[in-house]
Amino acid sequence: MVNINGDNKNAILEVICPNSHKFNIKWSSFKRGHRCKECYYDSIKIDDNVKNDFELYKRIVWKYTRKSCRLNKIGKRNNDIHLDHKFSIIEGFINNIPPFIIGDIANLELIDAKENLKKGGNCSITKEQLYNEYFKNE
Length: 138
Known about the structure:
The protein is an alpha+beta fold. It is 45% helix and 17% strand. The chain has helices at 27-31, 37-44, 51-71, 89-94, 99-102, 113-119, 127-137; strands spanning 3-5, 12-16, 22-26, 81-85, 108-112. The termini are far apart.
């Protein structure tokens, strides 16, 4: 860590990651486990020229995800229980699957946090299973 600007949950940390990327992040985001975006993109194999497209896709997916949770009364999550996209957002982007399908209740489940973190960007269902579940609910 290089510097801290502020003294509460909105404090901004200036950080240099182990791969020498310098970035700013809110303390609250850092505490939740968010880290260097450059390293994240490297780990999921997203090319520099599509990073903005991926970020937009991800925001749209989360818009549909929040709507699905609200409509289906999916309860509160916590540090032990995570909301999981069975077919991951990353794979949805790579496979050109519409964001409304990735964010649909057919693709969501509550799972143990450790299992979700271990899963990373991997999928627990195939693309065919995703479409079958989605169209079964339509």
